[in-house]
Amino acid sequence: AELAHKNNTKLIVDNTFSPMILTPARMGADIVVHSLTKFVNGTSDCVAGVICSSKEFIGQVTDINSGACMLLGPVLDSMRAGSILKNLHSLHIRMRQHSQNALYMAEQLHQLGLNIHYPGLPIHPQHDRIKSMMNDSYGFGGMMVLDVGSQEKASEVMALMQDAGVGYLAVSLGYFKTLFSSPSSSTSSEIPEDKQKEMGLASGMIRLSVGLDDNIKDSFEKMKGCLSKAGLV
Question: Beta strand 168-169 with 143-147: parallel, antiparallel or unpaired?
Fold first, then answer.
């Protein structure tokens, strides 16, 4: 934020993965965007987004003559907007549960000796950084990555988890059920292989959006069974 403002530039932050947990506007962000499709709505039944900023900026993008949102047409219909607004009222409760479940999963997977990336674990290189930035009580979020070593093994594990009822193989996130996908062959497949390696995106990575399971211990045991069948534990 300091660097952007020193150069008379607006800072835009996408906070889709961490609503409630982080508040970019309080840390200097000029514009905050969310994919409402994900955690904010939480039920995977809409495609929507939101731009949050000052009244002046929002006035510019919605100006009837020159505003991008008026000219290009990304305006949500009132029925869908109302539906998302209703779900927004439970966001704080849902984010706590997502975070609580994800932390349990991450701790258990780490204890099994697996390669897990989750900012709630003290071993994560940015653990102290997110602790210094986050709002209290909402946890570290519902997103984590499990690296199983290869694309073939990732595909095997995900198929086993779907069959066992751990969740669904899907590229979305923020749903009340656990979702998992392999970014290198799905959401980031358009990135050249050498660039993926450069940015640390290994082919064996499984992205997990941990759901709102009431009995997360049971869900973990199902997942552990899948990992065992795949020869990883």
Answer: unpaired
